[in-house]
Amino acid sequence: MHVVHSVEPGGMERVLCRLVAALRDDGRTRHLLCSLRDPRPMAGAVPDHVDVVSLHGRSRNRFLFLRLARLIRESGARLVHARNWGTWTDAALAVRLAPGARLLLGFHGLQSTPSFTAGQRRRSRWLRMHRLPATTVSHRCAGQIVDELGFAPDRVRVIANGVDTSRFRPVDET
Fold first, then answer.
1. What three-state secondary structure class fits 64?
2. Which strand ranges, in their side-by-side order, compose the sheet holding 51-54?
3. Spatial separation of the C-alpha atoms in residues 144 and 136, rounded to whole Å
4. Least confident residue range of 95-104, 137-146, 159-168
5. How deeply is 126 buried, as exposed, middle or buried, from its count of CB atoms within 10 A (0-12, 13-18, 19+)?
6. Least enclosed by CB within 10 Å: which of 4, 84, 87, 136?
7. What is the DSSP string of 114-166?
8. How many CB atoms lie within 10 A of CB 15?
């Protein structure tokens, strides 16, 4: 299960849509995209083989994690990949109520501030997020969650966003 805050036409969302499109259903692995808030997926970007569920949560909904936990249990999700800080708290709480599910945190960077707030750091410590495995899209992002949230460097993997070099190659000017 891929958990995102919303499915708006942003960079992280586009990368996720391309990823699930490339990871076709192999009969053993299903992909479910869960939007915590925005009910409208990007038009035409989510492949037909991927189910999209929206929890229609409102900001400051303290009990959204209960709905997410129920979805995890009902879907039988074994791996929940919570993408970016806006999903981490709900996912960390939900997975605790969904036996057999494991949580992977994904960090693509902060959008509105250069660093985590004091409240985010406290919440991260309280939920022991630093003990969870995490992926980031850059070494800078990895350093940020190590330095600011206390993640162990060996629990963080950098998976850089790729570029299709056949599509985006320099023009030959000869």
1. helix
2. 51-54, 32-35, 2-4, 79-83, 102-107, 134-136, 156-158
3. 10
4. 159-168
5. exposed
6. 84
7. SS--HHHHHHHHHTTGGGS-EEESSHHHHHHHHHHH---GGGEEE-PPP--TT
8. 15
Residue reference for tokens 């969302």: 13
pTM of the model: 0.84
* pLDDT average, residue stretch 36-56: 74
User: Are 40 and 70 within 8 A, CB to CB?
Assistant: no
Please name the amino acid found at residue 111. Answer: Q
32 Rama sector, left if φ>0, alpha if ψ -120 to 50, beta otherwise: beta
Q: Check whether 149 has a pLDDT greater than 80.
A: yes
**Closest Cα to residue 100, out of 75, 83, 123?**
75
CA distance 44 to 76: 26
Give the model confidence (pLDDT) of 75-133 as tens digits: 999 999 999 898 999 999 999 999 999 999 999 888 778 899 999 999 999 999 999 99
- C-alpha–C-alpha distance, residues 117 and 37, integer Å: 22
Using CA atoms, how far apart are residues 86 and 38, in angstroms rounded to an integer? 13
Any idea which residue has 């030959």 for tokens?
172
Query: pLDDT of 9-45, one tens digit each?
Result: 666 677 777 777 777 666 677 888 888 887 565 556 7
